[in-house]
Design brief:
Layout lengths: L15 H8 L6 H5 L5 E4 L3 E2 L10 E7 L4 E6 L2 E9 L4 E7 L4 H4 L5 E6 L1 E2 L6 E3 L2 E4 L10 E4 L8 H14 L9 H7 L4 H9 L4 H32 L11 H6 L6 H14 L6 E6 L5 H14 L3 E5 L3 H15 L6 E4 L5 H13 L4 E4 L13 E7 L6 H8 L6 E6 L5 H7 L4 E5 L10 E5 L4 H13 L3 E5 L14 H12 L5 E4 L5 H12 L5 E4 L12 E6 L7 H8 L10 E5 L5 H12 L3 H12 L24 H18 L5 H19 L3
Parallel strand pairs: 2-3, 6-9, 12-17, 12-18, 13-15, 13-16, 14-15, 16-17, 19-24, 20-22, 20-23, 21-22, 23-24
Antiparallel strand pairs: 1-11, 3-5, 3-7, 4-5, 5-6, 7-10, 8-9
Helix pairs in contact: 6-7, 7-21, 7-22, 9-10
Length: 682
């Protein structure tokens, strides 16, 4: 028998070319191949008669060849083979392009099973290039439930299916991790049957049972992993913070903290005094004041003789935090430094020396903080901002630079409870559900292209009143296949045609880091009236003078991402507005976008977004840091998620240290899952 970790190249028919194609799908071993699950199924088990075939609906039917297939050579590279087939209800003309071999395979007077789509009307029905098998041949492409796989260029579904079935024939599937009692309780198939049935189901019902097992398994592995992390943290001891007086910090603030901020700070203070490492998420809507909560935590760490590190996902956001927090901490006698990838080698060296010596108390930076060359004197608190850009592994990488430091995670992305369960299952949660006094809701409107003149007039009105405007486009450059606005082209149009007298700036993700920072800094200083940008401004751009956000082709974004973009305005004293433009008139699109117009509550919007789009699009792109689920869907499998979570908690409490085969296999799978999650973030 072959082993799961054997390379796919041991399979017959998998040479260097096919192995390279499989590698494009992250398939390197037999286990990777067996765990490459179908995205859909075609039920080819039901046969219909020719007269029951419907246009554009693929179906299987049994028919006899009524003549000898004839091939015509049309031109170089194009041969057409035609033949007529019939059953007791009707006749049907078949056409094959560049499949001359059908003249030998389809024999006059013999019956075959065909699968394909008819086109035309009943008088002139025909079928193009159906797949077929002889009636007495074993079913391969007909009379069965056929899995449809995610593929890559040059790799056919038939080739993928052949390779997977060969792998299943020569090695055992992944080991069983679910005890028999648990499988019986939740109606779960055994592992071996499930892994075979997901690829070779005898019926659609069996495919669903296999899928249910694998969904439960993925959720169970992840929830069990989080439970193990919580258990390990509870057993870890750290010196409790003794100095918890925040009076000097609070007195230095130019504003009063909200009740929600104070509540979050009290929860953090209690964590720091416990003697076990804090692992807390501070979650709040745009502009709710999470940064000041994090600053309070950093202050407590520094007055207790520890260093604090704040990691932001972008240099723009890191710079913004540095500017605000260094001004706040300097009068308190605390030294703050900034560390980013775009700094010169000398700047990085001097900054790292100050960190390593303990000269600086608060370090703010990007992924540069994770570098092996960045060492801390006494790191006591790790803060990560906009957590959905990071994951468990990156949090751990920064935490390893200290001796069991406390961890504080900030997220300005309201997350549905079901999604938070998976993203933050290893953290305690503080929610800031109160906006600072004076913050008005942003009025939001949905308009079509017919309102373009009025939108442009409103932009000009805002600029005339001394305000600035954001215009967000879904693409950087024009794409002939997509009818959407591109930032580069639209900025040029606005400057040359629509607003030649205004100052138009451009910002997008393909620009160098230094260029992006220069453009954003200039806009923040009021040196441009309109900033045309992509979603690079989604996180952490603070321009209080900006009072209007126009989002072009808004249907191209998720609701939560639109809400994040909307949060870039309304940060000053002026009344602010958000205009969503879309020429997509579908009912679902209109319903989704109108939901954003009705509320500024990010948590309600997030629930709606998860229900409509699913977590794969929740943040506008593949959710970094989430486990790489191969079968499970957070939006579709919530009941299974709840079952798996309950089962995993019970298992950890009662069998977490067992040395049974199931327990050993589970721990191995947990390590594998988190390793794959880390891979999506690099």
């Amino acid at each position: 028998m072959a082993k799961l970790w054997d390379p796919v190249s041991i399979l017959k028919g998998v040479g260097p070319t096919k192995a390279k194609q499989l590698a494009q799908l992250n398939i390197f071993t037999l286990q990777d191949l067996i765990c490459h699950f179908p995205r859909a199924y075609e039920d080819r088990t039901r046969l219909v008669t020719i007269d029951k075939l419907e246009p554009d609906k693929p179906a299987c039917f049994r028919a006899m060849v009524m003549g000898t297939p004839r091939t015509s050579h049309i031109r170089k590279g194009l041969d057409i083979t035609k033949v007529q087939v019939a059953d007791h209800t009707a006749r049907l003309n078949l056409t094959f392009f560049n499949q001359k071999f059908t003249t030998e395979q389809l024999q006059y007077g013999k019956e075959y099973i065909f699968y394909g789509c008819v086109s035309g009307d009943f008088i002139g029905y025909q079928m193009t290039s159906p797949v077929f098998e002889a009636l007495d041949a074993p079913p391969v492409v007909t009379r069965q439930v056929l899995p449809i796989y995610p593929l890559t260029a040059g790799l056919s579904n038939a080739a993928m299916l052949k390779a997977i079935r060969q792998a299943l024939a020569i090695c055992d599937p992944p080991a069983e991790i679910l005890p028999a009692q648990l499988r019986q309780q939740y109606g779960i198939l055994p592992a071996e049957r499930a892994y075979h049935a997901i690829h070779q189901p005898a019926s659609m019902e069996e495919a669903e049972l296999a899928k249910k097992r694998l969904i439960f398994e993925e959720f169970f592995i992840f929830c069990a992993g989080l439970s193990l992390m919580r258990s390990a943290r509870a057993q870890t001891r750290t010196a409790p913070y003794r100095e918890l007086d925040l009076t000097p910090f609070i007195n230095s603030l130019p504003f009063a903290l909200t009740g929600a901020q104070r509540r979050a700070i009290e929860e953090i203070s209690a964590d720091l005094a416990k003697g076990t490492p804090m692992n807390r998420l501070v979650q709040g809507d745009v502009g709710s004041g999470k940064t000041m909560v994090a600053a309070a935590a950093a202050y407590l760490a520094t007055v207790n003789g520890r260093q604090a590190a704040l990691m932001a996902p972008t240099e723009i956001l890191a710079e913004q935090h540095y500017q605000s927090l260094s001004k706040l901490f300097s009068p308190l006698g605390l030294h703050t430094v900034l560390l980013t990838g775009s700094m010169t080698p000398k700047q990085k060296r001097l900054t790292r020396e100050a960190i390593a010596s303990g000269e600086t108390q608060l370090v703010i930076g990007t992924h540069a903080l994770l570098s092996d060359t960045t060492t801390f004197s006494h790191l006591g608190l790790v803060i990560t901002d906009e957590q959905h850009r990071f994951g468990v592994a990156q949090r751990a990488a920064l935490s390893e630079k200290g001796e069991d430091p406390h961890l504080l995670v900030m997220s300005a992305t309201p997350i549905p409870r079901t999604l938070a369960l998976l993203m933050y299952g290893d953290l305690e949660v503080s929610i800031i559900d109160e906006l600072p006094p004076g913050r008005e809701p942003v009025d939001t409107f949905l308009v079509g292209e017919t309102m373009r003149a009025r939108v442009n007039a409103f932009i000009r009105k805002q600029v005339a009143e001394g305000h600035q405007c954001f215009v967000v486009c879904p693409a950087v450059e024009e794409n002939g296949e997509l009818d959407i606005k591109a930032a580069e082209t639209w900025a040029q149009t606005l400057q040359q045609t629509v607003f030649p007298d205004l100052r138009i700036a451009l910002l997008h993700g393909q620009m160098k880091g230094s260029e992006k920072e220069a453009v954003m800094a200039a806009f923040a200083r009021g040196e441009a009236d309109v900033l045309v940008a992509t979603t690079v401004i989604e996180v952490g751009v603070d321009v209080p003078n900006a009072a209007l956000m126009v989002i072009e082709d808004a249907d191209r974004f998720g609701l939560s991402q639109l809400h994040q973009l909307r949060g870039r305005v309304g940060r000053g004293k002026a009344k602010s507005y958000c205009i969503l433009t879309s020429h997509n008139r579908s009912e679902q699109t209109q319903t989704r976008l109108k939901a954003l117009c009705k509320t500024n509550d990010g948590f309600r919007i997030a629930e709606e977004d998860l229900a409509l789009r699913g977590p794969g699009d929740f943040f506008g792109s593949r959710q970094s840091g989430l486990p790489v689920f191969r079968v499970a869907s957070l939006s579709c499998d919530l009941q299974t998620l709840k079952q798996a979570q309950a089962a995993s908690v019970h298992w950890i409490d009662n069998h977490g240290t067992d040395d049974t085969p199931e327990a050993t296999a589970l721990r191995s799978r947990i390590a594998e899952l988190f390793h794959r999650a880390e891979g999506t973030m690099n």
